[in-house]
Design brief:
With about 200 residues, this protein is an alpha+beta fold. The chain has five helices and nine strands, in the order βββαααβββαβαββ. It starts with a strand and ends in a 21-residue tail after the last strand. Keywords: Transferase.
Length: about 200
C-alpha cells in the first residue's frame, strides 16, 4: 500500500496492493447512504467483529450518528472510492472517541473483506493513534472478540497490550501513550571576551 500526492489534512490517496486506488478521508454526513448500502455486503462475521453482536442492517439513525462525529471528542475516517461523498462506496471505517475523563479513547475499525489483508487496518489504526496523541490522550483501547485473532495480532504489532475486562468472549487491547517530552531549550550562545579581559 502506498500513499500518494499532497492532500488536505487527513486526506490521502492510497494505492492498495491489488492496484486499487482509494481515498482515506474524514467521514462526512453524505456517507450515511453509501454506508447503509455497503453494510448489506458485509459478511455476518465482519459485522459481529465490529459491533460485537449480530446485526441485519445499519439503520438510518445509526448511520446518521456514525457519520456526524462530535468534533470535540470524536474522529472518524473512511477508506472509500475516490468519488465525491455520497457517491463513493465505503470499504472501511475507523473511529475513535475520547472518554468523559479526557484521558482515554476507544477505537473501532471495520475493514470489509473486499479490501482486507492489504495493510489498510494498520494504516487506519496509526492515523487514529496520531489523532489521539494530538489531543493529549494517554490511553487508546478497544474491545475485541477473542475469536478476532487478526485484530489482536495487528494491535500487538503496534504496541498494544491485553488487559482483562471480565467479560466472556472479549479481550481489551490497550496502547499507553507516553506524554510528549518537554523541549529542552538551546544552550546559551558562547560569549566572546574582549582581548585582555
Amino acid at each position: 500500500m502506498a500513499a500518494r500526492n499532497r492532500m488536505p489534512p487527513w486526506h490521502e490517496n492510497v494505492r492498495l496492493a491489488n492496484g486499487r486506488d482509494i481515498l482515506i478521508r474524514p467521514i462526512r454526513p453524505e456517507d450515511a447512504g453509501p454506508m447503509q448500502a455497503a453494510f448489506t455486503l458485509l459478511e455476518p462475521d465482519e459485522i459481529r467483529q465490529r459491533f460485537l453482536h449480530p446485526m441485519k442492517e445499519l439503520s438510518a439513525q445509526q448511520a446518521e450518528r456514525l457519520t456526524r462525529p462530535d468534533p470535540r471528542r470524536d474522529f472518524a475516517l473512511v477508506a472509500a472510492e475516490p468519488l465525491p461523498p455520497g457517491e463513493a462506496l465505503v470499504g472501511a471505517v475507523a473511529r475513535i472517541s475520547i472518554d468523559a475523563n479526557g484521558k482515554d479513547a476507544e477505537f473501532a475499525i471495520l475493514v470489509s473483506h473486499y479490501v482486507n489483508g492489504m495493510g489498510l487496518g494498520r494504516h487506519l489504526m496509526r492515523r487514529l493513534v496520531r489523532w489521539a496523541k494530538g489531543r493529549k490522550v494517554q490511553r487508546v483501547y478497544g474491545d475485541v472478540l477473542e475469536s478476532n485473532l487478526p485484530m489482536q495480532a495487528l494491535a500487538a504489532s503496534l504496541g498494544f497490550r491485553r488487559e482483562p475486562i471480565g467479560q466472556a468472549g472479549l479481550v481489551r487491547v490497550v496502547l499507553d501513550i507516553p506524554p510528549p517530552k518537554p523541549k529542552t531549550p538551546p544552550p546559551p550562545p558562547l560569549m566572546s571576551l574582549p582581548p585582555g579581559a
